Fold this sequence. Notes:
By secondary structure, the protein is α/β, with parallel strands linked by helices. Helices cover 47% and strands 17% of the residues.
Amino acid sequence: MLVSATEMLKKAVEGHYAVGQFNIxxxxxxxxxxxxxxxxxxxxxxxxxxxxxxxxxxxxxxxAMVSAMIEEMNITVPVALHLDHGSYDGCYxxxxxxxxxxxxxxxxxxxxxxxxxxxxxxKVAHAMGLSIEAEVGSIGGEEDGVVGAGECAxxxxxxxxxxxxxxxxxxGIGNIHGKYPxxxxxxxxxxxxxxxxxxxxxxxxxxxxxxxxADMIKKAxxxxxxxxxxxxxxxxxxxxxxxxxxxxxxxxxxxGFDPRKLLAPGAEAIKATVKEKMELxxxxxxx
Length: 287
Ligand code: 13P
């Protein structure tokens, strides 16, 4: 069932768990994530970056594929199709293409401009029945060529954006996209608590879910995080399993080169990663 993410994240805040956003790149990714969510009776958010959208030939293709898969695979758990780190134009494209949720990432604008653009998009998204995420304090690391320094969000700025009526908020707390470096300082729970104090029960979003230790994830959920984004970890699992298959020479045995066989271990690896995260986030059985 394709739905906005508002209801599932409200429930997550009340139930003290988080819903995973897993980014998709192609059919295999989407199929593996949907199958796992259904098997575990968990709500799920499919994240689509602008780069991944382009790779899949456009947001319309993605939207059509996801809607059709939900129907053909008999997926009954709540699924949100969400634009990840959207630009202003990208948000409008996804609203038109049939997404059920968008993120407007105005964190690189001066706060007044972030407020102005977010305000407009909140109105448009809500009028069309979509949920909307905004961002304050850029997430570090590299995502689709955009490099963020990983600053911690200013809680007062979070309140300004929260008051615009966004449905959930990404606040930088020292998290970064991709693998964490050896000398990473960890999440700033002080910032998270200060943000929570300002925004109350608004669901908070933790980007850069790859490689955050389980105890930090649990503490973040305790402090109001209700959505956790995971991308790189599925890519690493897929690559490792695919490498194993090829290094074992399996693509050269019989019809092992058939893409349905060649890509199967990678898809199974994505499923295992998604399962592990859903269990850690506490969303299993919460559909
Ligand atoms: P990772 O790639 O670090 O898991 O981050 C994903 C993310 O935050 C997408 O917005």
